[in-house]
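Title: [Solved] Transmembrane protein 3D structure

Original question kept below for reference.
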Amino acid sequence: MVVVVVVVVVVVVVVVLVAVVVVVVVMVVAVVVVVVVVVVDTMHYKNAVRLTFGKI
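Solution (posted by the thread starter after getting help):
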């Protein structure tokens, strides 16, 4: 019985750790995507402004 309890505890701990890692990875990826989108949008905006005022 003790072995079964130990195995169950180990499995639960591993599952929780994996879940935490997955959540952290997803959050990091989301932050990176947001930063990239903002940077790209800013660059496009600056280029658009430059092109617009360059034509005037």
